């Protein structure tokens, strides 16, 4: 397993001055020196010419992976014009923060319902040696493993829970699901020298073939919940009305009349339409 090591390099600006000085000296000796000196100066000029190929540029948030005939020699992260062994191969690896958005995947959730899901993964390379040498193409590896982690996560949790189900759901616990997705993606990408900064669901919906049925189910659940709230409030209002009438001795009602009053009030309070009252112009009974 490869681990990133610091690739020592020299300032490219200083090396330009040094190489210019040696090159100028070589030209001078070739022109003015005797034959043996000219030969040495010619050899020195060839070496200086080769050394010019040791100059390279490192941009901010970039690393240059240095190799000598296939052997890893280190990673240079020093920004600016640098110089190193001209025989080194130098591969640029971006250290910037990047994001990847998966396509819309069609996966069955934990309840077997087909859903469409997509995610955004924010990542960056933290170990250039692992990114270059442990996987064939680290960018493609991030794409494939992120989608695989998203599929696996989707099959582990339901889209939404039933009344008696208290499991985590994809729709109802977005923050917890995002953290679990980030953890799972990180486990898969750790061997590639990649750090996952954030993972979020960017799309979540039922598949088109069941979307209409699930919408009707959601509407029915909402209607039932609203009915429960209305009935609960109506019962409280009726109770308060009867207690207030009894406390202030406005009217004395027996059990039969109380039952009739409760029935009428519940019809008025729980009905979908406004009640049409009928005034009693005769006696109370």
From TrEMBL:
Instruction: Tell me where it resides.
Output: Membrane
Give the transmembrane region(s).
12-33, 39-58
Q: What is the lineage of its organism?
A: Bacteria, Pseudomonadati, Pseudomonadota, Gammaproteobacteria, Cellvibrionales
Organism of this sequence: Simiduia curdlanivorans
Task: Report the leader peptide range.
Answer: none
Q: What is this protein called?
A: SPFH domain-containing protein
Q: Which residues does the UniProt record annotate as the domain Band?
A: 53-218
Record Pfam families: Band_7
**Entries under SUPFAM superfamilies matching the protein:** Band 7/SPFH domain
> Mostly located where?
membrane
Report membrane topology: Single-pass membrane protein
Concerning Gene3D superfamilies, the annotation shows: Band 7 domain
Q: InterPro entries recorded for this chain? A: Band_7, Band_7/SPFH_dom_sf
Superkingdom per UniProt: Bacteria
Q: Which UniProt keywords are present, listed alphabetically? A: Membrane, Transmembrane, Transmembrane helix
Q: Can the keyword Kinase be found in this entry's annotation?
A: no
């Amino acid at each position: 397993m490869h681990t990133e090591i610091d690739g020592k390099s020299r300032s490219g600006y200083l090396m330009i001055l040094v190489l210019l000085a040696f090159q100028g000296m070589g030209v001078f000796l070739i022109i003015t020196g005797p034959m043996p000196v000219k030969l040495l100066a010619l050899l020195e000029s060839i070496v200086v010419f080769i050394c010019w190929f040791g100059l390279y540029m490192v941009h901010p948030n970039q690393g240059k992976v240095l190799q000598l005939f296939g052997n890893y020699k280190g990673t240079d992260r020093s920004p600016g014009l640098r110089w190193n062994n001209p025989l080194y191969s130098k591969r640029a690896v971006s250290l910037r923060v990047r994001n990847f958005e998966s396509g819309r995947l069609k996966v069955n959730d934990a309840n077997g319902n087909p859903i469409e899901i997509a995610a955004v993964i924010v990542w960056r390379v933290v170990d250039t040696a692992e990114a270059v040498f442990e996987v064939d193409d680290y960018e493609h590896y991030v794409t494939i493993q992120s989608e695989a982690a998203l599929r696996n996560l989707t099959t582990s949790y339901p889209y939404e829970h039933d009344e008696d189900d208290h499991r985590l759901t994809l729709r109802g616990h977005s923050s917890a699901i995002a953290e679990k997705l980030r953890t799972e993606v990180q486990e898969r990408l750790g061997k590639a020298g990649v750090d996952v900064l954030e993972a979020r669901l960017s799309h979540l919906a039922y598949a088109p073939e069941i979307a209409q049925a699930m919408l009707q189910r959601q509407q029915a659940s909402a209607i039932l919940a609203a009915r429960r709230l209305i009935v609960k409030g109506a019962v409280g209002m009726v109770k308060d009305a009867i207690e207030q009438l009894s406390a202030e001795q406005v009217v004395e009602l027996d059990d039969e009349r109380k039952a009739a009053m409760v029935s009428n009030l519940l019809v008025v309070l729980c009905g979908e339409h406004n009640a049409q009252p009928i005034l009693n112009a005769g006696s109370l009974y």
